[in-house]
Each structure stands twice: as C-alpha cells, then as structure tokens.
Amino acid sequence: MTSWNGQNTAYFTEDKDDHIYNALVRSIVEHKLLPGNKLPEEALADAFSVSRTGIRRVLQRLAAVQLVTLLPKRGAHVTTPDAEESRNVFTTRKLLECANMSAVVAHCQSPHLAAMNKLLQEEKRAHEDREGTAAIRLSAAFHVQLQAISGNKVLTETVSQLTLRSSLAIAAWGAPWQQGCRCHDHDDLLELLKQRDAAALAEKMAHHFDTIVASLRFESSEGPTPDFTQIFSEVSPLPVKDRETR
C-alpha cells in the first residue's frame, strides 16, 4: 500500500523487494528512465546484485501500477502512455484536485502553510540550480502535500499514484527542458491557499493543468536501453544477507 511521506513524494511500500522497487520508481519519476526504455532482467539483476527472479517480481509490481509494460518475447519497457491516456491522466487529476480544494482550505492550518512554503522554496532552488530530477520530484510533492492537507487519505493516495503517471506523460510528450510544473503557478496556488479562497484556488488549479497539457507535444518517440549500473550507482546497496544467488 502506498503512503505519503512529507516532501519525499512517497509511492513506497514495505515489502521484500522495496529497495529495488523504490529505486526504479524514483528513476522513472525523475526521468532518469524514460518511456520506451528497455528494462532487461539480466542488466537490472547485475545492477542490483540480485537474481533475475527478484527483478521479475519487481517488474510485475511496476506493471501493476502501469509504470512498466510487459510484452511476450519483448520483455519489459518503461510504459509510454499514448496521447489519449496522457490527456486522461491530467483530466482526472484536474477533476480530483480541483474538487478537493474546499476540503483543503477548510483543514488548512499555519503548520500546513509553513510546510508548503518550505517545499515551494526547495522546488525553486532546484529549478534555479538546474537540478532537473529534484525539480520534478518536488513538483509532484507539492501537489500531493497540498491534497494531504484535506485529511482525505484515499484521495491523497490516488493523486500520489496519478503523479507517477503524469511524470511518464511529461517524459513521453514534454519538451526536453520541461521539469515538472512551473514554479510561478505553485506560487500563485500557495498565495490563494493563504487567502483561503477555495473557488479561486480551484480555478487556478484547473488552469494549471490546462497549461501543462497544452505544453505537451504528442509525437512518437522510443528510447534506447539505459546504463543501469550508472543510473543506480548512488542507490545504497542491499545488505549482503538480502542479496540473492542467481
């Protein structure tokens, strides 16, 4: 079961293969692994020092949340959402997040505003420092944490999952420089939250999603097989006792 964990937009669970699952999710969300990238079991097994069986379990979990596509005789690829699916992901987010603004405003307290402001400042710094992966992660975190203020855990978890698919859509169809949402939109959203103007907040959020969709370029693309050893070189290795023998 997924959970929200502060600013670290959490799509993370607590099962045996989480170390690998979480590393792959983060790499997909942060556009280190792109739509269409091949995910060969052997290469991933080498990168994580585990068996192909363990990698296969993780890939099946990722397929269940639509981040990976498994095809007979073609193996696993990072999912490439088509244009219709991509539009529908943002349409669904728009419906859910805008409709929940009244509950967000009703439950918002000073600590929430302070946390949102801290998150926004970190997102701005990531953009200024051209730290693309951090900017993408923090952009998603802004939306999830905003919805979490309402106290509706089911909706927050749903939005958390949808941000994963949004990241795929932006990776597949966005411009090369596109790194999450535009910071000044989040500035405006936070200011309206401080004013407790639920109607204006919902209107601004709707415009925000419309702008994102309008920025996407729906053209076909396919990526090569990534260098997994390099991508996951900074991931803490599994304890020796948890490594699998092939």
Automatic annotation (TrEMBL):
Keywords: DNA-binding, Transcription, Transcription regulation. It comes from the Bacteria. It holds the Pfam family GntR. PROSITE patterns: HTH_GNTR (PS50949). The keyword Transcription applies. InterPro entries: GntR_C (IPR011711), TF_FadR/GntR_C (IPR008920), Tscrpt_reg_HTH_GntR (IPR000524), WH-like_DNA-bd_sf (IPR036388), WH_DNA-bd_sf (IPR036390). Residues 14-81 form the HTH gntR-type domain. Signal peptide: none annotated. Gene3D superfamilies: GntR ligand-binding domain-like (1.20.120.530), Winged helix-like DNA-binding domain superfamily/Winged helix DNA-binding domain (1.10.10.10). This is GntR family transcriptional regulator.
